[in-house]
Amino acid sequence: xxxxxxQRFALVALxxxxxxxxxxxxxxxxxxxxxxxxxxxxxEDGRAEMAGQTLRLDSAxxxxxxxxxxxxxxxxxxxxxAAVDASRCGMFxxxxxxxxxxxxxxxxxxxxxxxxxxxxxQEESGSYAILAVFLLPDDAEGPFALDVPGTDEIARFxxxx
Length: 161
Description:
By secondary structure, the chain is α+β, with helices and mostly antiparallel strands.
């Protein structure tokens, strides 16, 4: 019996495992990073409507919550109203307008209590408050752009704390 015949099961398993590893890499690393042409809706007068949600930027405050040395927090409050057909929104991101740095909502990492408001858009109809807390380095000054992704568009709010 030749070596190839004795090792055929192991070789087939190796090929299947390599294909699975490539598929996982593409699914988790390549596809999410691929540029998408999602339309961006610039907020007018601090208001935007998307995914059945009416969002209004209420306030942006520096250092409302405790932060590690060399960083500070930026708390952004949004008044929201969900319609009957509303859907949840994606992860909030904060980006420098004149830079390349982008931050995600760090509320759970900073142990901000939930009695302050929701951390994302809700599906239930009615009014509610959203609190997004970003952990920024000391040298981040602003202005910023807050992106709230919906199902098929992004609402962008200018933020100047």
